[in-house]
Amino acid sequence: MTQTLDTREGLQFFGRVSASVSHEIKNVFAVINEAAGLIEDLTVMAERGIPLQPDRLKGVANSIQGQIRRGDTIIKNMNAFAHSTDETVREVNFVEILDLTRALAARLADMRQIRLILGDCEPVSQLANPFDLMQLLHSSILAAIDSMDADDTLVLSVKPVNGGASFSLSVPGKDAPLKNDHVFSSTLQTMNVTVTVDENLRTTELFLPAQDATD
Question: How would you write the pLDDT of the chain (215 residues) with one tens digit per residue?
Fold first, then answer.
C-alpha cells in the first residue's frame, strides 16, 4: 500500500458513509419521537380518568432505552470511522476494522434485505492505511451485495496469510459473490490487493500483502 487512494473517491466514500449514518440517526430520533408521543397520549388519557397501564409505559420506556443504545453504537462507529483519517499508516487490527466496516454498511444491506455477519476471523494486525482499507472493504461489500438476492447472508472473514492478510466474502449455499474485480480495480491496484475465487470453498478472497514501515 505505497500510495493513498484518489482523493475524490475518498471524499465520495466518506460522504456515502456519513449520509448513511445520518439516516440511521434520523431513524433513531423518529422512533424516540413516536414513543414520546405515545407517552403524551397516555398522559392525556390519565387526565381524563382512564387508568394508566404500567405495561404500556414500561414498553415505551424499553423502546426509548433500546433506541438510545442503538444511537450510542451508531455514534461510536461514526467516531471510529472519522478517526480512521488521523494517520496515513498505523498498526491496524483487521478484525476490528472489518467489523466496523460491516456495521457501517449494514443499513445499505438492510435496504436490500441482506444480512452482513462476521464469520470465522483469526487475529491479525498489520501496518495499513485504515481509511483506504475501509474504503476497499466497503466497496467489496457493496459490489457483493449487488450480486445477491433478498434474504441472502454475506459472511465476512479475515485471516493472516503469507505475512499479509486475506479477507474472504461468501454467501452460504451459493457461489462466490464476486467473480471479478472490475468494480474497484483501480482501488485494488493502488493497494496492491489481489482478488481470487476459491471455487471449492465458494469464497472471494482479497489478499493484502504486508506493508513495509518505510512505504
Answer: 445 566 788 888 999 999 999 999 999 999 999 999 999 999 999 999 998 888 999 999 999 999 999 999 999 999 999 999 998 899 999 999 999 999 999 999 999 999 999 999 999 999 999 999 999 999 999 999 998 999 999 999 999 999 999 999 999 999 888 776 555 666 777 788 888 898 899 999 999 998 776 55
Location of C-alpha cell 491496484? 189
- The CA distance from 35 to 41, in Å, is 10
Between CA 158 and CA 167 the distance in angstroms is 4
**DSSP state string for 125-178:** EEEE-HHHHHHHHHHHHHHHHHT--TT-EEEEEEEEETTEEEEEEE-TTS--S-
* Angle value at C-alpha 157, between 101 and 136, nearest 5 degrees: 40
Instruction: Give the Cα separation of 167 and 156 in Å (integer).
Output: 7
Give CA–CA dist 213/118, Å, rounded.
29
The one-letter amino acid at 140: S
In whole angstroms, what is the distance from residue 188 CA to residue 194 CA?
7
Three-state secondary structure call for residue 21: helix
